[in-house]
Amino acid sequence: MGTTNWGSSMTVGEIAVIGAGMHPWGKFPGKSFVDIGVEAAKEALRDASVSWNEIEFLSGANTVRNGYPGWVSASTFANALGFQGCQLASSYAACASGVTALSIASSHILAGVCDVALVVGSDQVPKGMFAPVPGDRPSDVDWLRFRLMGLSNPAYFGLFARRRMALYGDTQDDFAAVKVKNSIHGSQNPNARFAKTFTKEDVEASPIVADPLRLLEICTTSDGGAALVVSSLEYALKKGIKDPVRISGISTIGPTYPNAVIDMPYFASDSWAKSGDQNHTFKNDIAQHAYREAGITPNDLDFAEVYDLSSAYELDWYEHIGLCNPGEARDLLHNGDTSIGGKIPVNPSGGLGAFGESIPAQAIAQVCELTWQLRGEAGNRQVKGAKVALSINYGMFGHGSAVIARR
Amino acid sequence: MVKNRVPAVDGMFTMDFDNPSLIGGKALTTGSFYFPKDLGGNDPASVNDERREEVLLSSAGKVWSYTSADYPPALPFLINSEPFEPFVIAAVHLEKENLVICGQMMPGIQISDMNVGMEVKLVLDVLYEDEDNEYIVWKWEPLTGVAV
Questions:
Q1: What would the DSSP string read from start to end of A197-258?
Q2: Of the four, A40, A84, A119, B39, which is 20 to 30 A from B87 by CA?
């Protein structure tokens, strides 16, 4: 474990996760994002033994690639399930949208505004790399980074990976080993897009996309959906669930200036001329807030789901969430610590490497995996005896996203 | 016919081909540097006085990291040549300002020419063109020149 001081704890109430549901991830050209989200929602409701009519609040994570219905996702999903008059909220925070939606549901429950809520996110995406929304916007850094230098998302993953190689001596072999590990995990997950277990040779045979990263090491874009039914602890008890999975911490923080490590979609860092800290990165702060809410440290974790947009990026997250000190991630990987059966499995679901990105769904999907694992229902990918887990993610422009769940 | 050379975006760099500079901002109250001048976020310490003076940033720095675009980037990137020519991207640390700024490396630079820590300088080059104009952007090139 790392040596960071994670700060003092806060007093924040807990909510229960009483249902988790997913639509499998992949390419489903015959379906809309609504079809996919509704299927995931119905799975979660079935899992919770809660009827749609009992839901008091629907919190939707938006998609920006499916027109207006995607921007008002809660009302879209509620209409598709059948308007029954519950409260609605629709959220967008890029890849953090799912946890933003979950945090609103959690706040409503903890404030006593509702007892039970449904959280849904789904997407249906065009093929190929993500691109800015159309139109000429020379005051939008997301538009400018593409126009002025062709700085696509994989280019950031390449910059981070090369930086690891320069700072810590990591190699392309280390990065390939992350892909191999996660493909073994994902092969045991029926909801994952890719069932194949890849070898180091498979990775090496795939073309370079953003040096030093190869095609098989960069997560693809997927159609997919995920949903949760969350409630007060009293409501769970009333439903006869005596020992539910509980959410003890949610982080939706933004960065603290100056963010010295360059982040998507910016093409310049903040200046650290005054702070003097060239290593300050937002990504170190995201988990910290969730640890403080939950009153735990990384030592308490039994496993983690992290945001592996690329193979090398997974190694960054081991350090950002405090599993080890900077530069030590590959030791954890090669010791087998982060494989299922190891000391602190990372991405037992297979991660984005096995699923691909479905932006509004992915942070919710991570919490689905936390739920199934903590219940002991994860089949061949089960982390034995798991009691406490973290999921982490972050939304472009500066939306943090982390959840701590326990049982 | 000689085409007009126009900046691909206004206000981010000088059009001095011999000695180009990026145009940054320096907060009057805190002294913090920003690039671009008015898009580079804000120091919360200057929330009540956001005035920034325009400053020319250092035109040389050291490579913080680098990568390549081996596949064509999506729109609004405009592909200037068919077939697409892969290029190298560098993130460069400017020592005085303690800023890291990205840009393409000049055409002809290969990944094998790159090292983290190598010295590079700012240059201007064509990003794309149409019938009348060449649209200019900043790029980086090794301080020691290009061995192509």
A1: PPPHHHHHHSPEEETTEEGGGB--B-EEEEEEEEE-HHHHHHTT-SS-EEEEEEE-PPP-S-
A2: B39
